[in-house]
Design goal:
The structure is a homodimer of 310-residue chains. With 310 residues, chain A is α+β, with helices and mostly antiparallel strands. Chain A has one domain (11-305): oxygen-dependent coproporphyrinogen oxidase (3-Layer(aba) Sandwich), CATH 3.40.1500.10. Helix content of chain A is 37%, strand content 24%. The first copy, chain A, contains eight helices and eleven strands. Chain A has helices at residues 11-32, 147-161, 165-175, 199-225, 232-252, 254-261, 266-269, 290-295; strands at residues 42-44, 48-51, 54-56, 61-73, 92-103, 110-121, 130-141, 177-178, 183-184, 188-195, 276-278. In chain A, the strands form two sheets. In chain A, strands 1, 2, 3, 4, 5, 6, 7 and 10 form an eight-stranded antiparallel β-sheet that branches. In chain A, strands 8-9 form a two-stranded antiparallel sheet. In chain A, helix 1 runs parallel beside helix 4. Chain A is globular, with a radius of gyration of 20 Å. At the A-B interface, helix 5, helix 6, helix 7 and strand 11 of A face helix 5, helix 6, helix 7 and strand 11 of B. Strand 11 of chain A pairs antiparallel with strand 11 of chain B, so a sheet runs across the interface.
Chain lengths: 310, 310
């Protein structure tokens, strides 16, 4: 493992994330078969760049957003550095890809992925002049409980995260949790933040493995569920579940809260919201129904143990 | 004006709020003409009582909630007393009515009303043994800009609040504001908190005037707009506007945040959420359309000045 100083050049991370965006846009357009991603490319101050890509009203994907940003700032906002207050006010760069897919069919799960890299010019020789970390992960939110899908998702996650799978899975279950409902947002996956383990090269390799694994984890599930017919009952349930998704993102998600407070472009911050949602007062799924069975999936569980190793 | 000590008996306030609930339930059922409010009556510890009333899927009201609660607690939670930290841990009572109406037609505005009374046993002779205040108000959220409706609403508000109208209207505009959108939630109304002005009797009289004014302010507007035919275009716009409503309630509303954090019954805390909502990425109403004209209503404005005194 190399322990050379963190490079101040963000370019390789940016190039990887841009490539990830390009690939996912292509894959998701192929799956939808009709709608295209649209979005401009916006130059940001200091050499940064934002490239939002959003698909809406597709034949099979009701909404998908695959957003790339590279921000360059002269002074790190205090809200961005709660854990590292000494970095506030320093020059920084951040680059990230954020992905959300809300399929039209209630049988295909919603998926979310985020990868970000953060680089701060500390101006302090003791840290070799820079602080950096990776963060991100991916998580899955089904409306219907297909054990095979969830096991596949977690198998791919484990293969990507290796020895870090257990910790990252636990962090994911803890983060995507609605305490007022007593349920997780979905069936989890991977979550990591402030990641520097093993130095830059090892951390970047892990981030790449996780980023590349997202398509392997999600697209087979998506393809498998797209052609199942559904009716009003399933759609109604999907909209209720999407209401929970909106609850999490608006009331609990740190990234959304920070984005709204920091004056970022609101359409980007809220791109993850479901295209439609519903709240039904005191809704309780019928006992013994597939909808009721989903509730058993919305808690931290060992998804791989029951299946045994693959 | 009487300056007698605040009575420790919460009964008259509770009786007024229960009567307000009963009247509004009756009025709204009459307007809907088909659906009924449902809900149990729950005894709470210490002699408190909760009486939620929710109507869903009506012919003309898609959702309405008129909730009464009277809580009696041995120890005031710190989160309830940010402005009066010395009251934390003291015995308290709180009684409130909370109203939300989401009509089916996009041409009728959503309305919200809340009245609450708070009584804390300070155990301190210098305050005659108790701290109390009133809070609440009402606000209107249209999808379409009918100046006559808004002027009527604010005329009734002014008549109820009297000399306090300007301050309560300003507080309402400031509170129901989405900074990330740069727009108010609706066209405002009245908002007050920690209200003790002129002593208990004057404050209670003002709270009663505002509570009683809600039906006068809202029901004529509701009746006037219920029979206008609408189509897909109006419904789509309504769902987008309801998305903003959900954004405010989930991401910004202090009452909702406190309710979610304090472990109150989630169905009550979130009863104000719209039954359906939508988020359309980067939606912009057509220039010159009624939808675009609404945006001119979503900022603090003097609604009475343009009309002159009535």
């Amino acid at each position: 493992m190399s322990l050379r100083p963190a490079p101040l050049d963000i370019a390789p991370v940016r190039a990887f994330l841009q490539g990830l965006q390009t690939g996912l846009v292509r894959d998701l357009e192929a799956i939808d078969g009709a709608a295209k991603f649209v979005g401009e490319e916006l130059a940001l101050p200091g050499g940064g760049m934002s490239r939002p890509r959003v698909l809406q009203g597709g034949e099979r994907l009701e909404k998908a957003a695959v957003q790339f940003t590279h921000s360059v700032g002269a002074s790190l906002p205090p809200a961005a550095t709660e854990r590292n207050p000494h970095l506030a006010g320093r020059p920084f760069q951040a680059t990230a890809v954020s992905v959300i897919v809300h399929p039209l069919t209630p049988y295909a799960p919603t998926a979310h992925m985020n990868l970000r890299f953060f680089l701060v010019d500390t101006g302090d020789a003791s840290t070799k002049g820079s602080h950096w970390h990776f963060g991100g992960g991916f998580d899955l939110t089904p409306c219907y409980p297909f054990l095979a899908d969830v096991c596949h998702w977690h198998r791919v996650a484990r293969n990507a995260a290796g020895e870090h799978y257990e910790a990252m899975k636990q962090a994911c279950d803890e983060y995507f949790y609605l305490p007022h409902r007593g349920e997780t947002r979905g069936v989890g996956g991977l979550f990591f933040d402030d990641w520097r383990e093993g130095g830059f090269e090892a951390s970047f390799a892990l981030a790449k493995a996780i980023g590349n694994a997202f398509a392997d984890a999600y697209l087979p599930i998506l393809r498998r569920r797209l052609d199942t017919p559904w009716g009003e009952r399933e759609e109604r349930w999907q909209l209720i579940r999407r209401g929970r998704y909106a609850e999490f993102n608006l009331a609990l998600d740190r990234g959304t809260r920070y984005g709204l407070q920091s004056g970022r472009r609101v359409e980007s911050v809220l791109a993850s919201l479901p295209p439609r949602a519903a709240w039904v007062h005191d809704h309780r799924p019928e006992e013994g129904s597939p909808e009721a069975a989903l509730m058993g999936f919305l808690a931290a569980r060992d998804w791989l143990g029951s299946e045994g190793p693959d």
